[in-house]
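for the writeup, i need someone to sanity check this before i put it in the appendix. the sequnce is what the collaborator sent (i think, or maybe the updated version? ugh). structure was predicted straight from it, no edits. if anything looks off just tell me and ill rerun, i have time this weekend
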Amino acid sequence: MSAGFEKADTSSVGSEMPADTSLQTALFDAVCESLGDAFIVYDKTDHMIFASRQVLDFFPISATMLRPGTRLRDFLGAIYDTGIRTPSASNHGAPSREDWLSQKIASHWRERFEAVERHGTDRWIRFGKRRLASGYGVCVIQDISEDKKREEQWRSDLERVQLTEDILDNLPFPLFVKDRNLNYVAVNIAFCEKYQTTVDEVLGRKSGDLFSKEVAQRFEESDCHVLETGEMSVSRQRQVSRDGVERDIVTRKHRIGKPGRYFLVSTMQDLPRDGADLDEFRFASTVITSSKNSYRRAYVPMNGSGERREPAAMEAIVPENFSGRKILVVTSDVVAEAAALRTLAKYGFEACSVRGEDEEEHFLEIASSSGISLDLLVIDNQLGMRCLELAKQYGIPVLVMDGFQLANELTFQIARHFNRSNHGQVAESIDADWEFTTVEEMNTLEVLVAEDNDINQIVFSQILEGLGYRYLIAPSGDEAVRLWTEHQPKIILMDISLPGFNGFEAARLIRQTEEGGSSRTPIIGVITQAFERDRAECAKAGMDDVIMKPVSPDILQGIFQTYLAGDIRQATM
């Protein structure tokens, strides 16, 4: 390389270069362009022999400064005049022009020299300089802005992670995080101390590796529900620690992240023995006396913005003639049970509760034999069909509600039920025909629900009535297609497992019928498990979206806001 450079006589600046020198220059330009870096080569008298065009990408100088024969001092002076320079650390403020040039030329005469300079707010430049034994010098200029940004981002992320760990480890209560596969991915010191373990023993493992099969199953049941629905879970438990002390604790579980990258965050806090601050946890103080009742759930649905759903107009006035009515609450959720009984007592209802179908059956037998007439059964939707069958057997009206409604919306729901009854609208039994809408209203049918399960039909009916939508319920896929043809609803909620045509077949038939038409009815698949194959099959059948059971007012209202934007109304609940 030096032999070729020697042919470039500095006295020939401004004259036409020899052919071999022009070829070398072209080759060097091609190499520099492929590398994306800028190169400068200068001789032992500090005259430039070669400078690639990429130099102009770094410094806004004239192209004439890159011509062979230009003095290195003149080239550096042109750079100084652009204002792109780094102040000397040894001086106060920016160095003078001569001092800056002296420093730069000195660095070019060092055998090896590397430096990184920041030009502007977001550009970093690396200079690599070599002085060969022959006296020739080479300077390589690289833009390392992306590398520096990644380095700074990595350092910032590391600091945030460290800060997060410090915050979590200083929390006085246990906290853990699980991924969508229910593996522990983070725990704090309080968690390890509570269960007398270490972080390394927990991370990457599941509840089944750390707890008994029964406890792990309870944990994962609640975990799956929160991850699948996005609803916050609040549960109260009594635990006996290794020192033999019994403690009541409340566990909260939240879903964070984005679809495909959801995480479960759980916290556990001890409750005081005197129940002084139970109102902070939004449920009444209830002593759990049986080990089989040591785990109960109270789901608090979330709305689309991620905020907790607040009860609407729960302090509705209950007419005096309702007081003295006899109500039986059937729920295994002790949190919701306590709140419901407290609310009913406040408004003068005579109420008591049982915690399952066996207790319900025994209670109704005794009440019947004693001549006691019940006005209403309030049943938790987490319980089985047997509870509803018993209500039908004894001819007692039923309200089916979720845990949140039992704890927060009971007054409103019961007042509406008895008001309807007083106006001749008798509560429907489980075998009732759910077509409540008149022929006139059918012309503007809003929601068609395809659902064959009796309990789910009741749940859909109560939610849609509460939200104020006109609806029909089809117990089979064939009936869903027929009702869609007759009434042209604005949206369809389609269970995928239906008798006759299943949900997929019914959706495909509706889409085929719509072909060539001007309208397209939104079809929402209703699934029970978060299986990707079900979601894919729903999309393949022409469905627009999917929701998961159990449904809630917030879930349905969110769907309606998305697909019925022009017809949406405020919930009356």
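Residues 43 and 423 are 104 Å apart (CA to CA). The chain has a mean pLDDT of 75.
thx in advance!!
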